Amino acid sequence: MNIVIRGGNSITTTNQPLYVVDGFTSDNGSYINPNDIEDIQILKDASATAIYGARGANGVVLITTKKGKAGKVIIEGDASNGTQNLTYKPSLINGTQYAAIQNAIAHREWQLLRRSPPVSLTPIQTGGN
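^ that's the sequence the OP posted. Answer follows.
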């Protein structure tokens, strides 16, 4: 989540605003569950700098979360459930089998290198004598 309140103010640091959640300051507001937010206020002028100093120079996002209320108890919850099934399960090998395959590949490459004629590295002649 990228919020810019007062535009680009700095070339060396972030332009993110200061987040204040229920009176506690934070540089990152992405950890807040949107369902828990009761009120959001934005301070973008000199008031932000006057209250929070240089930390509020890029603006301040004041977030008030929901609080308990007197009366009947209400419990709310969100739940989700899912399943996954493999459509194809490949056969796997163990460490000993893997080592044997790698050794066979290396041995085959070694045999091919022994059979190939040596490569002659002669300089390329360019025009002239």
